[in-house]
Structures are given as structure tokens and as C-alpha cells.
UDP-N-acetylmuramoyl-L-alanyl-D-glutamate--2,6-diaminopimelate ligase (Maridesulfovibrio ferrireducens), 485 residues
Amino acid sequence: MSDIIMDIAKWNRLLDKVKEGLMVRTDSREVQDGDVFVAISGPLCDGADFVKQAIKNGAAYIVCASQIDTESAELILHSDPRKALVDLAKAYFKTDSSTVKIVGITGTNGKTTTSYLIEQMLTSAGMKVGVIGTVSYRWPGFEMDAPLTTPGCWQLHEMLAQMNEANVDVMVMEVSSHALDQERVAGLNFNAAILTNVTQDHLDYHGDMESYFEAKSLLFSHYPLTDKRGIINFDDPYGKRLLESYSPSIGFGLGSPDELSGDNLCGEMISCTGKGMVLKMTFGTDTWEIETDFIGKHNGSNLLAAQAVGLHLGLTPEQLKATSFHGVPGRLERVRNDHGFDIFVDYAHTPDALKNVLSTLKDLNFKRIITVFGCGGDRDKTKRPLMAEAACKYSDVAVLTSDNPRTEDPLEIIKDVRPGMKGCPMTIEEPDRAVAIRKAVKEMTSEDVLLIAGKGHETYQIIGTEKRDFSDVQEVTLAIKEIYG
């Protein structure tokens, strides 16, 4: 007992020092004289293994789960260093006193588009909005490219503090299943939690779909606020399961909520063409319509999710009608050109996402659909033939190429994808993505549509361990210029 009491006393003293400005690090390479080092373990490493390097770099305090020799540094034992980091981050950045409302978005597909739609909606309503997501981290006066969809715990609390200082009203953030499983968002108080959908992805990490769904569900079962609202897609089977167990919530969808109780935002697609859509909403006794240049049912679902958040935050149907919803980088992004070609770049890198995008294009009555796609290296191999099946089901020409091969041989990845290519009217295999895009452009006529899928907004390609400059939008623009002048 005396050891526990002594550790608690040491821990409280450390918290006080951190509140006064003592710096905390989780990367031993970044430690400077006098810092605190928190030894967090990962799936492949023990945090205690990095303590010696942290001490060598000047760490004065070590927070660790095991009794180890810390030489001249003071050891503070903690049963869970990840939770210790949360408390230290809250102490350092004073995020418990933040007035910024937080909206978290999880799901396999649609997180980024939904975050942009919420940003546009709330900005139109006169609010200051911050966004943390796949494309960038941004708020009024600040923007940086996003290295991760959801950053680490310390950086999240730092950015929340900066948003609070900038008088941001609402922070909208994409919350990945990895981040939930690794407790990166611990210590944040979410005012709303959105589930867009759950389809196959990241099984190399989670193992099976049920574990993947359970990770997504943590956004709802943890991080509670008394007025937190679940915003959940009742068209999705996993979403329907979550709606049956989580309250309070708003269900949303383009279908029927069936016998689900509670509040539901129901959408009806009045029209959907290549020029855009008209979407009718019903919520209780209120009905309203929105006209937008977005296309596709999946974007109708994303619009509903955003509007459900607006309703939860107090916006009226009149305010929602007044919102101008416009494009999202790399999400069915039209590549404008002088030759009138219909070319879209999309981030679709899962079988379900690719199916959704291609089925959207199929409904627009182009003469042919030409699809450029690939599969990432060092990722879930089981989805590779499924990606090909999705491409071939809807495409007249399927161009199989590299995505981010990482440390795998691109030809071996293509070999894994190939079994799903059966039945496609025409196939082209080209491991060089730039060359593949040029071959696809050469194949086009003015009546066709070209979809370049998988990388979307990304401005790089990972080959080996190297990030090389590469943009699908820039590459296809260059291809058109080179081929057609």
C-alpha cells in the first residue's frame, strides 16, 4: 500500500508540474533536458525499451508501467501509460475548460466528405469551424496537410487548445478505427458521434468484421457527455444494430427506418443526374429540399449525416436549405479540361467505396466507364480480388495499376488482384500508375467517363519506404495535354 500511496503522490506532483508548463514526450528521440517521457507500448514494441534513449537525451521524469532502472531520472509508475498521457495532455493544454464543441465521424466510407459538408453547413450558419481529417488539419488562420486521419493524443489536445484560443465554435474530426482502438481520442468530450457505414477495411489490423465494428462503436460507448447524440446511418446493417443499442440518437437514411424508435431524418432522392441532385428531407413534421451539384446516393447519405448534425446543434431547416454544399477534394472530384472529357478522381480504395462510386456513374448513362484502380501494399490482401470484382462489375474497361505499393512488389499485388478480373469486357494491366493513366486517357471518347480511383486527394505515391510526388489530378491533366494538346 505504501508504494501505491507514494506513486500517487509522485503522480500528482508531476501533474502539477505539467500544468505549469513541463513538456511531455512520447518519442524518445524528441526528448530534451528536463522533459517527461511517457513509455507507451504498441502492438510491436515495449515502451520501456526506449527509456534509456529518453534518459540519454535528458529526460528528468519517466512514466512507465514497469519497475525499471531510470538512473538519475525520476520514475513514476502508472498502470496504463496511455491513460497517463491523456491526463498529462489535459493538464498541459487545459482542454477540460475548452468551450469548443466536438463532432466525431467514424465509418469506413464518407468520413471526409461528411466533414467537409458539416464545415460548409456550419460556416454558412456563421460559426467558426475547425476540421481534423484525412486531407488536412485546419481552422481560421491555420492549415496543414494531414499525415494521419486522426493524430495522436497529445497533438489532438494541442490543436483543441489552439482552436479554443482562436474562438472556434465546433471542431469536426474524422475518427479512424485505429485511433479508437489505440485510445488516441481519449480525454475528448464529443457532442455528437456519427457512424456513416461499416464495410470491409483494415482487417489486417482488426482481424474480422465484428472486431472492426466494435472498434468503431467505441466512439459511442466511450467518451460520453450527457447531451452527446449519436448520428447513425439506419440504411447500414451495422448502423441499425448500433441504433438499437445507443441512445440518444438521430437515425438517418434514404430508405425506411422500419420499426426503429427515436428521431429519424429520412431522405428522398427527387432527382439525380450528372449535373447534381435534389434531396428531400423529412424530420418529424418538418420537410425541406436541398439542391446541390453533388451526385450519387452515397453523397445523399453524407448530406443527411451532415444535416442531422446541424439539427442536433440547433440549426433550422431554413438554415439547412440556405447552405451551399459544394465539392470535396478527391471525392468524385471532376477534373476540368478543355476537351470536354468527363473525368473524376476519387479516394475509393475499398470494394464497397469503389462499388458505390461506379454504380453512381453507371446511372448517368455514359457510353462506357473506364476505371483506373489498384490496391495498396502492406495492407489487407483479402480485399484485392474484391476490388477487381467491383471494378469489373461496373466498368467497360478496367485498368489495373499500382496504388501505394509500399514495400511489396507491384507485380505481386497485381497478381493477387487478377483473380477478380474475370468477366470484364476489356482489361489493361500497367504497374506504372502514370503510364496507366495515359493509356486510359487514350482509350477515352467524348461519350465515356474515366474514373481514377484509390488515391483521391493524395499528392504522393509510396514506393518502398519513400514518398514520391504524385497527384492523380495533375497526372491526368498532363496526360490530356500531352495526348490532345
